[in-house]
Hints:
Elements: H1 16-22, E1 29-34, E2 41-46, H2 66-75
Antiparallel strand pairs: 1-2
Amino acid sequence: MNIARVTSKGQITIPKYIRDQLNIRTGDRINFFIDETTGLVTFLPVKTDVKKLKGIVPKPEKPVTIENMNEAIKSGWSNV
C-alpha cells in the first residue's frame, strides 16, 4: 500500500511507485476527481491540453468515407 502524509500546508508527496506508473514528473499538473457518493478521490496527470493538438495531423489529400474506415479496420490496415 502506498501512503502519503498531509503536511500543515495541505501538501502530500506522491509515492515514487505511483509517480512512475503515471509518468508524473516535476512540474506536471494533477487533476483531482471526487466521487460524491463514495468519497473516493482519484487523480490523473494533466499531460496536454487537447486544444494544443489541433493541426498536428495533416488533413488527408482526399476525404475518407466511413465505409473506407470500416474496411481498413476489418483488414487491420490503417492506410486507406
